[in-house]
Specification:
mainly alpha, Rhopdopsin 7-helix transmembrane proteins, 3-stranded mixed beta sheet, 11 helices, 3% strand
Length: 319
Amino acid sequence: MTPGELALASGNHTPVTKFILQGFSNYPDLQELLFGAILLIYAITVVGNLGMMALIFTDANLQSPMYFFLSVLSFLDICYSSVVTPKLLVNFLVSDKSISFEGCVVQLTFFVVHVTAESFLLASMAYDRFMAICQPLHYGSIMTRGTCLQLVAASYAFGGANSAIQTGNVFALPFCGPNQLTHYYCDIPPLLHLACANTDTARVVLYIFSALVTLLPAAVILTSYCLVLVAIGRMRSVAGREKALSTCASHFLAIAIFYGTVVFTYVQPHGSTSNTNGQVVSVFYTIIIPMLNPFIYSLRNKEVKGALQRKLQVNIFPG
């Protein structure tokens, strides 16, 4: 039985009005070090992604669908990292690590929206690379500004739909105590662990929709890149192959990191990992990955590096 079911069996029917985010309380000696490290990572995340967005919007050589999607990816990274990290940083500094019931609903809602939207955006980026490399003659007529906006809107639509389903699935359950959440933010698995009811149906809903929003984009991505690799293999130009592989390698690395951690957290069987391992993996995809993405794309992309060099030369050595 879960702690919530035990509370219900013992006759404790007091509705929960707040949750206690235990976070990394098991490591009291590391609180200051963790605060400093996570604050630095979050600062780099915000500055790096804002810088990537500003560079793309202001450089004439980066006005293509690929970089438009990359700017949206940077926006999503800032959003879902900001849903989680500021509260975590505050909890390192205060003794009251609680979050209101309503605040927990809002945090989970916005987190699922942006993580799901990123999953579908990565699929849109893979489709863009497929069109650019496999259908170059039709690329300009198909991947228009309108098409790109529609793909971003669809990503957010899927995010909103999945968030409504997942958040409703969790908070339709009763919570009557205990309220000690073994996590640093309101996430679905630890919340289900506290519910004062049988959660088997809720877990099935979690696995089904988590699998759908993970595996459907992954299928698009894998199909696109299989076709892309075939097309690259047929290229006669060595320079063309290197450029195509460089662009795709950055995207594929970001995809592998993102989907690997999400699958580990949400699609695995219940009870197959410890709370500590779950928190470590969550830190990776909520805090580390948003920081890494700008570096993954910029360090392996000659056009981004060239645009950055031009901006630095204009600003540092004007005239």
